[in-house]
Amino acid sequence: MAKKNDPRFHILMDILRRLDRREPFTKQDIMEEYGISESTFHRYRRTLVYAGYPIEWNDKQKCYRFPPEYCLSKPKATHETKLVFALAKMYLGAIDPELKDKFEEIEEKVFSKKSGLPAHIVIKHDGFSERASRYFEQIQGAFEEFRRLMITYKALYSDEVTKRKIDPYYLFYEKLEGTWNLRAYCHLREDFRTFALDRILKVEVLDEYFLPRRIDKDEELYGAFGSYVDGDPVDVVLRFSPEIKPYVLRKRWLENQEQKELKDGSLEMRFEVNGIEGIRPWIYRWIPYVEVLEPEELRQEMREELTKALEILDKKSDKRRHG
What's the pLDDT band for 4 if we cut at 50, 70, 90? Predict the structure, then answer.
C-alpha cells in the first residue's frame, strides 16, 4: 500500500537502509510502496549518487545495491563518549534488563563496536534490588500519564505494612544509601512522603488521574541528607579532628555545606539539613573523631545512644569474663 504522505527525506533514508542491509529491491518496489512515479524514483536515486553514495544496478540479481566492499560508516565515538555510554549502560541496565537491551540496540546503530569500560577502570557496583527493578517501569509509566498508584509499603524502621494511594512526582537516587526513592503525595498522610523502592511490596497503576502541583525538586532536595527530604531546616555544626580531616574533605557531602579549618588543625563543618534523622547515621561513621557542636538536641540524642551502646558492650564483656 502506498505511503503517499512520507516526506522525501524518509524515502531517501529508507533506500539507504535497504542498501546497507543488502536487502534487494527494484525501482518498482519503491514506486509501489511510496506511490511515486518512475521519474521521481530516478530523481531520488541520482540525488543519492550525487551525494556520494555508490549505488549500482546488479544485472545478475536484478536489483540495486552497494558495492560489496562499501557500507555506511558509523561515527567514531571519542573515548569520553564511549566511557559515558558504558557507565550509563552499566548503571541503568542494572535497574532493568530491558534498558540494557535498549542501550545495546542503540550501540549497534550508532557505534562501530560495542562500548565497555576499559580494563584499567574497575567500578564496584552492587546493582539494584529486585523489587526496585520490578517497579521502575510501572512507576515511569504512571509519571508520563499522571496516574495514581496504589502501593503496599513496608516501613523500614517499624516493619509496619500499609496500603497507600499516592500521586507520583519524581524518582531520585540517594548515593549515600545507594537506594532509589519515590517522592509522592500520600493520600493516607495527606502530605508528601518519600518511599524507598526496595520497601515497596506491590504496585498497582490505577485508572485515576491527578493534576500535578508545581513543586521545586531542587529546593526539596537541597537540604536532604540521605533520603530524608521532609523535616524542618536545622543547622548542624560539626568539628572533626585533624587526623580524620583529609577523609572528610575528599568529597562534598551536601550542596549547602560550609567549612573552615581551625588553628589547631581541626575542621569545622556546617550543614543546613531537613531534620536530623538523615545526617545522624553519617556522623556516627566518624566517631570518635567528630564532635557535634549544634544543635543541642542532636548532641543529647547521640549522648543517650552512645551510652546505650556502651552498656551493651559492657554487658557482653562481663559475659565473656564470667562465661
Answer: very low
Residues 6 or more apart whose CB falls under 8 angstroms from that of 213 comprise 185
Q: Which CATH architecture has domain 8-65?
A: Orthogonal Bundle (1.10)
User: What residue has cell string 540521605?
Assistant: 226
List the chain domain ranges.
8-65, 130-215, 233-310
Which class for 149: exposed (0-12), middle (13-18), buried (19 or more C-beta within 10 A)? Answer: buried
Per-residue pLDDT of 38-60, as tens digits, reads 988 988 888 888 788 889 998 88
Which residues of 20-160 form beta strands (DSSP E)?
56-58, 63-65, 147-154
* Residue 148 identity: R
Q: What is the CATH number of domain 130-215?
A: 2.30.30.520
Least confident of 175-179, 197-201, 300-304, 305-309: 175-179
Nearest to 199 by CA among 146, 250, 135: 135
